[in-house]
Design goal:
three-stranded antiparallel beta sheet; Arc Repressor Mutant, subunit A; 6 helices; arsenical resistance; 118 residues; mainly alpha
Length: 118
């Protein structure tokens, strides 16, 4: 895994919010992360895919759900980086507010509320 890819995975407020939840609260499905962070299913799934590809989280299929959890095999050095970023980064509520603000800005630029066509 490339260090730049790993760090880039940690550079998004929504991903940080999801990572904070999974890191401290254990395993969660996308639907739970969506609800807590105010993100759509497709957007949350894309964010979790980035974290999974970076090796930060693991996923498992549970019937129709995909559940994500902290990767216990992450190296101590990378674990220390994640923990430092989580301490310095926005809380989950802040990530939700940032995600909503991004959607409002996108909507203002496109003339569509929430940044997406309804």
């Amino acid at each position: 895994m490339d260090l730049a890819e790993f760090l880039a995975a940690l550079a998004d407020p929504v991903r940080l919010g999801a990572l904070r939840i999974v890191w401290s609260d254990g395993e969660h499905c996308v639907c739970e992360l969506m609800e807590r962070l105010g993100a759509s299913q497709s957007r949350m799934s894309r964010h979790m895919k980035v974290l999974r590809q970076a090796g930060v989280v693991l996923d498992r299929r549970d019937r129709q759900w995909v559940r994500y959890r902290r990767n216990p095999d992450l190296s101590p050095e990378l674990t220390a980086i994640v923990e430092a970023v989580l301490r310095a980064g926005p809380a989950a509520e802040d990530a939700r507010a940032l995600a909503q603000a991004k959607g409002a800005r996108a909507g203002a630029q496109t003339g569509v509320e929430g940044g997406a066509a309804r």
